[in-house]
Specification:
Length: about 130
């Protein structure tokens, strides 16, 4: 009787181990991350005091993200003035060929002002 139970247990164990570890019904689906086709440009400027400001311009959506002193400001294209401003109209960012200015409008205070590198222009003039 003992041998019958031991034999039955061995047969049961061997038949249970014949199943595949991988389930053939399971398929792995890879999710594709959407590729952004936005025209994004990153620039880091340093002013004469040594302060750094990072400017991330998205020309497709007409937005600018300004990172200054650990804070990030999201600005939208301003229809009335040349430049960008925040939704609450407290901050304004203007940029031209040679200068970048970021100011707080309600206090009339310039937070950052820097001149862009003019190395390319000097090389062209020579």
């Amino acid at each position: 009787m003992k041998n019958f139970f031991i034999g039955f247990f061995i047969i049961l164990t061997l038949s249970a181990c014949k199943h595949s570890a991988k389930d053939p019904d399971v398929t792995i689906v890879k999710q594709e991350t959407p590729i952004s086709h936005d025209d994004i440009k990153k620039v880091t400027l340093v002013d004469r005091h040594g302060d750094e400001m990072e400017i991330i311009t998205n020309n497709t959506k007409n937005t600018v993200a300004v990172r200054l002193n650990g804070k990030t400001y999201e600005l939208q294209k301003n229809v009335e003035n040349p430049g960008f401003s925040t939704d609450d109209n407290q901050y304004q960012f203007t940029e031209n060929k040679y200068e970048v200015t970021f100011l707080k409008k309600d206090a009339d205070m310039v937070l950052f002002h820097a001149k862009k590198d003019q190395q390319d222009k000097k090389m062209a003039l020579q």
